[in-house]
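BUG: 3D viewer hangs when loading the predicted structure for this chain

Environment: internal workstation, default settings.
Expected: structure renders.
Actual: progress bar stalls at 90%.

Input used:
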Amino acid sequence: MSTKTYVMVNPASANGKTGRRWPEFASRLRGCLPQFEVGFTEYSRHGVDLVRAAVKEGARHIVSVGGDGTHNEAVNGLFEGESLIADDVVLSVVPTGTGGDLRRTLGLPADPLKAMECIGQRPREVDVGRAQYLDHDGNAALAHFINISSFGASGTVVDIVNNSSKRLGGRLSFLLGVVRGTLQYRNQEMRIILDEGTSEERVFQGRFYNGVVANARYFGGGMLIAPDASMSDGLLDCVFLGDLSKFRVLKGTSAIYSGAHLELDDVDAYRAKTVRAEPVGGAEVLIDLDGEQPGLLPATYSLIPAAVQICTGAEWEMS
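Structure tokens produced before the viewer hung:
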């Protein structure tokens, strides 16, 4: 690509492995790109500021090197408030983190060096989710997500995983997090409204183990939570896991890796353009946003169709 390229790197991803391998990655990148500028994140959400500044200074190709949280920061850096800074930016993803959920949907290789061969290749317009929620200080917050947001047990799981070592790798780290989070979490009474204020409005109220609002297919280190989700259909895929017992959750966890969980009782799937979720009775319900834990319900989700161009791998399957 001949446009100005900015590479945003999270050296702390994969327990610091990304930083340790950076000389190797940089050498390969120099073979993929004629020239580029590099910025390294130093703290949480730093990548948002780095990418935002780069786009304002004329960068039109952003390369995100890190895990799913890093790629989320890159996407948020393309926005200022609710507005895209520029509509001609192309995003490439180099997956070096633990979970690798976004790269699965994009059809990218797990090996970062092989994934670099996809930089700048096969750009596709994809939808971006928007979440309005409460931060941990109780203030209204707004953020975007490229992959999946969820609320309930997954917020607790992500909080546990992100505050633990991920040396065991993505799948095992998240699986252990699911066990710990499930044992700790108590199903909460929630009200969930799809397409509020329209003729398609649907309201659900009851106790839920988890609620998922998906733009893409995978979360939790390879769980196929929304097998029918498309990043280019203008709709959010919603998967609700009802008042499941801890035993049923742990027994059925393996089904989520294949997408077979949708066949289970008390698991329902819907599509919507907007989702509002709120706790009933004052319970604190944590949310997950692309593998990060930024706040809690109530939250309102919407979708920005065809908002971002993102480069894909040969295994890209979306229409």
